Amino acid sequence: MAQETAVLVLAAGKGTRMKSDLIKVLHPLMGQPMLAHVLHSARYLEPALTVVVVGHQADRVREAFPDSRLTFVLQAEQKGTGHAVAVCREALDGFDGTVLILSGDVPLLSPQTMMDFLEAHHQLDVILSVLTVAVADPAMYGRVIRGEDGFLSRIVEARDASPEELAVPEINTGIYAVEARFLFEAVGRLQPENDQKEYYLTDVAADANRHGYRVAAIMGPEPEEVLGINDRVDLAAAIRYLRHRINHSWMRAGVTMIDPFSVYIETTVRLAEDVTLWPGVVLQGRTTVGRNVVIGPGAHLVDARVETGARIGAGASILGGLVPEGTEVAPGQVIRPD
Predict the structure, then answer these.
(1) What SS3 class is residue 301?
(2) Residue 17 annotated among the catalytic residues of the structure
(3) CA–CA separation, 259 vs 240, rounded Å?
(4) Percent helix, percent strand, percent coil in the chain, to nearest 5
(5) Residue of 17, 89, 189, 336 marked catalytic
(6) How many helices (H) and strands (E) does the chain have?
């Protein structure tokens, strides 16, 4: 089975539950738009091509990601996830590898989980794999029903599930690995046989089974990684999880945090070894901090460059500009670029 990978990211929906004029995938998450996290993780796969399906505020999404490595495909009418894949037929014409389908509103999936998922898909030698997780409260997520052989039998939407099926803790994450030669045949056979009159990508699993193919349900490591963001509550949960991951990563890289639970560091910040951060520190934007810098309680830095050995006093604000080597910034002092 071909090992070459294409990434297809579904990012056309508006996200009405966000209650915002801004499309959901452009909402900021720790310093970058939500969609940026998905694309950044996918780059570790070194895909042959990356296709992003856009719809609402399509021009705004394109402007936010002026990357020549991305191919944008317009889904002018949102008729479901199956339809979103179908409109990519031309963009993926001639590709004969594995298509990894991701969601633009599932931003916490790590590159390692993506790679492990694809590796398992290839080792099982199946036409289609679904990434799943087991959760304590499956709520309205689609349930994964396995056959006696352990392979996926079907995905049942919660509203259509029986009481026995609703008791199943394993859910569909909406992340798929599909062989390209099968994908567009399958989506071409989809029918909008549901209340929404939409074409659901979940029905591709049933189509594969009907045509005699095995479908793998591959369980992911952490439910938090596949958290789909639908509203501001979900966004806050994602920030909490990502903040924890970022802070632990920096501490392992040689940064001291007196109270890591109170420190906020955006993904665009860069820190050297032997930096010390006191409680309540906020680091945003393109801030860079050199070795042996101490940043006092409640200090706020945005797009700042702090050189080796500097000391930032409690409650200081550095809103752009340079703090030279060995400089002491007084408590409460505000520095802005000239």
Answers:
(1) strand
(2) yes
(3) 15
(4) 30, 30, 45
(5) 17
(6) 8, 23
Residue 15's pLDDT is 93
Look up the pTM and report it. Answer: 0.93
Structure tokens at 317: 């604000």
Number of structural domains in the chain? 2
3-state secondary structure of 249: helix
Report whether pLDDT(1) > 80: no
DSSP alpha helix (H) spans, 125-202: 163-166, 180-188
Does 269 lie in the same domain as 221?
A: no
Comparing CA positions, the residue from 169, 170, 161, 184 lying closest to residue 218 is 170
Burial of 16 (0-12, 13-18, 19+ CB in 10 A): exposed
* Buried b / exposed e along 94-118 (16+ C-beta atoms within 10 A): ebebbbbbbbbbbbbbbeebbeebb
Q: Give the tens place of pLDDT for each residue, 274-332.
A: 999 999 999 999 999 999 999 999 999 999 999 999 999 999 999 998 999 999 999 99
* The pair of three-digit structure tokens given for residue 139, joined into one six-digit string: 């709520």
Q: Are residues 279 and 214 in the same domain?
A: no
Give 200 or 241, the one with higher predicted confidence. Answer: 241
Last residue of a domain, one of 226, 245, 266: 226
Residue-wise pLDDT tens digits, 36-78 = 999 999 999 999 999 999 999 999 999 999 999 999 999 999 8
In CATH, what number is assigned to the domain containing residue 272? 2.160.10.10
